[in-house]
Design goal:
heterodimer, A: 107 residues, mainly beta, six-stranded mixed sheet, B: mainly beta, seven-stranded mixed sheet, four-stranded antiparallel sheet
Chain lengths: 107, 125
């Protein structure tokens, strides 16, 4: 089974900073990757799919890139409302695995 | 707008069967793949399995021996059964929808674009 390894597991950054989260697949998975944001006590929310397509309604400061085994979620200018845990996920072929999550906090 | 609503007992005894349903409104259950995902307290997301109206369900290998998914098109809902539960199965359980990509008669689930609000199931005597 393909594993999804996310890094870092947590980070602290200042408002306005550029933040990058990475996800590495143990085998090539084309662009079958989604990113989700889960705020404390809330339901996960889709941000990005197909590695780089912004979900309707998601803020444009979020972007995704990558293909094959290495994927990145970038927040161009961190905002207080971005405090959350972010998960990558592979889809298309089962098992539909999530990464371990990255907790983002404000410094 | 699609809505998903989980329902079922919030407390299950060890060794018994956890049963949950997800009622779908605003979308036809025949047009998507439908998954169950869980999140133990303070931990990450774990995919349990998915089912479509057509095709066989697929399960997380770590849970496959204990999980059964089913779909009821008349009620527009799908269900989860997890047997022989232990305290390690205590979690918030989410149902979620995936668009599908179909090719050559086989359909593949894509990203989770809609989620239920989640239901906490505690396994305890």
């Amino acid at each position: 089974d393909i594993q999804m390894t996310q890094s870092p597991s947590s980070l602290s950054a200042s408002v306005g900073d550029r933040v990058t989260i990475t996800c590495r697949a143990s085998q090539g998975i084309s662009n079958y990757v989604a990113w989700y944001q889960q705020k404390p006590g809330k339901v996960p929310k889709l941000l990005i799919y197909a590695a780089s397509t912004l979900q309707s309604g998601a803020p444009s400061r979020f972007s995704g890139s990558g293909s094959g085994t290495d994927f990145t979620l970038t927040i161009s200018s961190l905002q207080p409302e971005d405090v959350a845990t972010y998960y990558c996920q592979k889809y298309y072929s089962a098992p539909l695995t999530f990464g371990g999550g990255t907790k983002v906090e404000i410094k | 707008q699609v809505q998903l609503q989980e329902s079922g007992p919030g407390l299950v005894k060890p060794s018994e069967t956890l049963s949950l349903s997800c009622i779908v409104s605003g979308a036809s259950i025949t047009s998507y793949s439908w998954s169950w995902i869980r999140q133990p307290p303070g931990r990450g997301l774990q995919w349990i399995g998915y089912i479509s109206y057509s095709g066989s369900p697929d399960y997380n290998p770590s849970l496959k021996s204990r999980v059964t998914l089913s779909v009821d098109t008349a009620q527009n809902q799908f269900s989860l059964e997890l047997n022989s539960v232990t305290a390690a199965d205590t979690a918030v359980y989410y149902c979620a929808r995936s668009p599908r990509y179909c090719s050559g008669g086989t359909c593949y689930p894509l990203h989770f674009d809609s989620w239920g609000q989640g239901t906490l199931v505690t396994v305890s005597s």
